């Protein structure tokens, strides 16, 4: 046998630094593309969110044709939303003459399958919640859906008591969900049979929203009612 045939010529190896350079270049290009896509889609996402929020405000506050965004600042004051102003958002809703129809506030609580995010309509005149709209929920279909569509359950939010205590810094009575058929107080929510966890989450969301927003609304109602 030919000795030369028995000797295998080793294949040239790619230097490690060249491989690292190639991988680094790919990673840099990928990162740049992700950043460009993010920058391109960010305003689209923001606009879609603005439209969805506006639709929710007008649903819970029928009769409104315009809205203005406000922020509850760290010191509990209500301020027009703007650049550099941080805090929880609330939405003033206005009729065609610029009169205040009501205020949309949001709250969240943990349900059976994750957070339940809800928008509520608050009427400063009656100091009560007058409507609700689920913004996000992963609750069990057929049960969790009732939070938004069951007529008997939605009646809970036609005049749900959200009055403040004498100090004006918290609700006089916490909003709570009670067992179906046992509601006796105006601040109680009659739960849904078979969807106890979901309906309790709705009650906590309402309480969280009102405890945070109502003191600020009562304190700075003039900020909401003043004309642009």
UniProtKB/TrEMBL annotation:
Residues 111-213 form the FMN-binding domain. GO terms for molecular function: electron transfer activity; FMN binding. One of its GO terms (biological process) is electron transport chain. Signal peptide: none annotated. The keyword Zinc-finger does not apply. Keywords: Electron transport, Flavoprotein, FMN, Membrane, Phosphoprotein, Transmembrane, Transmembrane helix, Transport. The chain crosses the membrane at residues 20-40. Pfam families: FMN_bind. GO terms for cellular component: plasma membrane. It comes from the Bacteria. Gene3D superfamilies: 3.90.1010.20. This is FMN-binding protein.
């Amino acid at each position: 046998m030919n000795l030369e045939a028995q000797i295998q010529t080793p294949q040239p190896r790619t230097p490690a630094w060249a491989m690292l350079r190639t991988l680094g270049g790919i990673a840099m290009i990928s990162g740049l593309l992700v950043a460009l896509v993010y920058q391109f889609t960010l305003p689209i996402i923001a606009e879609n969110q603005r439209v969805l929020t506006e639709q929710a405000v007008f649903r819970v506050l029928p009769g409104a044709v315009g809205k203005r965004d406000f922020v509850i600042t760290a010191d509990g004051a209500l301020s027009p939303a703007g650049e550099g102003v941080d805090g929880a958002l609330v939405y003033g809703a206005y009729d065609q003459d610029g009169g205040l129809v009501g205020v949309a506030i949001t709250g969240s609580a943990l349900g059976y399958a994750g957070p339940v995010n809800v928008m509520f309509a608050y009427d400063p005149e009656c100091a009560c919640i007058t409507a609700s709209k689920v913004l996000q929920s992963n609750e069990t279909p057929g049960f969790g859906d009732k939070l938004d569509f069951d007529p008997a359950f939605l009646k809970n939010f036609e005049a749900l008591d959200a009055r403040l205590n004498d100090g004006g810094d918290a609700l006089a009575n916490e909003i709570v969900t009670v067992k179906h058929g046992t509601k006796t107080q105006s601040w109680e929510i009659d739960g849904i049979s078979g969807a106890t966890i979901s309906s309790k989450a709705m009650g906590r969301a309402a309480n969280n929203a009102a405890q945070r927003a109502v003191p600020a609304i009562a304190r700075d109602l003039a900020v909401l009612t003043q004309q642009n």
